[in-house]
Automatic annotation (TrEMBL):
<feature type="domain" description="ABC transporter">
    <location>
        <begin position="66"/>
        <end position="303"/>
    </location>
</feature>
<keyword id="KW-1278">Translocase</keyword>
<dbReference type="GO" id="GO:0140359">
    <property type="term" value="F:ABC-type transporter activity"/>
</dbReference>
<dbReference type="InterPro" id="IPR003439">
    <property type="entry name" value="ABC_transporter-like_ATP-bd"/>
</dbReference>
<dbReference type="GO" id="GO:0005524">
    <property type="term" value="F:ATP binding"/>
</dbReference>
<keyword id="KW-1133">Transmembrane helix</keyword>
<keyword id="KW-0812">Transmembrane</keyword>
<dbReference type="Pfam" id="PF00005">
    <property type="entry name" value="ABC_tran"/>
</dbReference>
<dbReference type="GO" id="GO:0034040">
    <property type="term" value="F:ATPase-coupled lipid transmembrane transporter activity"/>
</dbReference>
<dbReference type="InterPro" id="IPR027417">
    <property type="entry name" value="P-loop_NTPase"/>
</dbReference>
<dbReference type="InterPro" id="IPR036640">
    <property type="entry name" value="ABC1_TM_sf"/>
</dbReference>
<dbReference type="InterPro" id="IPR017871">
    <property type="entry name" value="ABC_transporter-like_CS"/>
</dbReference>
<dbReference type="GO" id="GO:0016887">
    <property type="term" value="F:ATP hydrolysis activity"/>
</dbReference>
<dbReference type="GO" id="GO:0005886">
    <property type="term" value="C:plasma membrane"/>
</dbReference>
<keyword id="KW-1003">Cell membrane</keyword>
<feature type="transmembrane region" description="Helical">
    <location>
        <begin position="27"/>
        <end position="48"/>
    </location>
</feature>
<protein>
    <submittedName>
        <fullName>ABC transporter</fullName>
    </submittedName>
</protein>
């Protein structure tokens, strides 16, 4: 931009007779020389502003006093119970109830309705209830034990594979969890196994590898309920089939609470306890096999 401005002003001065072509060439040379350093200064200023704001938030979080007090939750929500009933009230008023302890998959053939489901899960519109209690009213200290939401976009931090899954460096990972997420293949692939280093934002991993680690994180532990959004879109069909079978085995053998998955994957839909086809103000509940008779459903899930 600076070079363009200098060229424009210089050309105007040349036309007016106030500057020679040789002088213009010299001015442009000097401008080009200083353009790089000036750009660096501007980029540094922008980066510093963002970093300072982030540093203040992190410092505030780390400086918060730890508490050992008992945290009460409103209504009937309790981290001690095995599972919770999830209810999504979409922006248009449609209510989708997901039964406690079940694996429920949500599908919509309507793009606008699908967007409303995603907005409700993200807390941007509508309401997400746990046993009738608005998730937004829950104490943040209790929330991890009652609800875990895994968005479609993977978020990984610098550390190791196991650190990104459990938040702790080292320690064993259950075989059932590794199979249900497809991370077992990564552990076998990497020389360091679950201790394989992960760069910030998972830059040294493929999209499919990132997604499998995030899925393992979502399935780890024993929160009362989980909501996953398109957890297998970046993996191949063979890996997806292994994940679906591993997920079925994991839920059959361990306390996994209520699971809600927003997906159009026929492989995952086939192992769900129930599939809810969400229309514009209308719902249809059945199994994947039963819903395949519906043309609109079949068009969405067929690959």
């Amino acid at each position: 931009m600076i070079l363009l401005v200098a060229a424009g002003l210089g050309a105007w001065r040349v036309v007016e007779g106030d500057m020679t072509v040789g002088t213009l060439v010299g001015v442009l040379g000097v401008t080009t020389f200083f353009a790089g350093p000036l750009g660096t200064v501007v980029a540094f200023s922008e980066g510093y502003t963002r970093s300072a704001a982030s540093a203040r938030r992190i410092a505030g979080y780390l400086g918060a006093a730890a508490t050992t007090e008992t945290v009460e939750t409103p209504g009937k929500v309790s981290a001690d119970a095995a599972c919770a009933t999830l209810s999504l009230t979409l922006e248009d008023g449609t209510v989708v109830d997901c039964r406690a302890g079940r694996f429920t998959a949500l599908v919509s053939a309507d793009t606008a309705v699908h967007r409303r489901i995603l907005d409700t899960v993200a807390g941007e519109a509508g309401t997400l209830l746990l046993d009738g209690v608005d998730a937004r009213s829950l104490d943040p200290r209790v929330l991890p034990g009652v609800l875990r939401i895994s968005p479609h976009t993977p978020h990984l931090f610098a550390g190791t594979v196991v650190g990104n899954i459990t938040g702790l460096e080292g320690g064993p990972l259950p075989e059932a969890l590794l199979r249900a997420s497809g991370v077992d293949e990564l552990v076998d692939l990497f020389a360091d196994g679950a201790g394989h280093p992960v760069d910030g934002a998972g830059a040294n991993l493929s999209g499919g590898q990132q997604q499998r680690i995030v899925l393992a994180r979502a399935l780890a532990g024993t929160p009362r309920s989980r909501v996953l959004v398109d957890p297998t879109t970046a993996v191949d069909s063979v890996t997806e089939a292994r994940i679906a079978e591993g997920l079925r085995e994991l839920r059959a053998g361990e306390r996994q609470g209520t699971l809600v998955v927003v997906t159009t994957s026929p492989t995952l839909l086939a192992v769900a306890d129930e599939v809810v086809l969400v229309g514009d103000g209308a719902l249809r509940r059945a199994t994947h096999a039963e819903l395949l008779a519906d043309d609109s459903y079949r068009a969405v899930v067929s690959r």
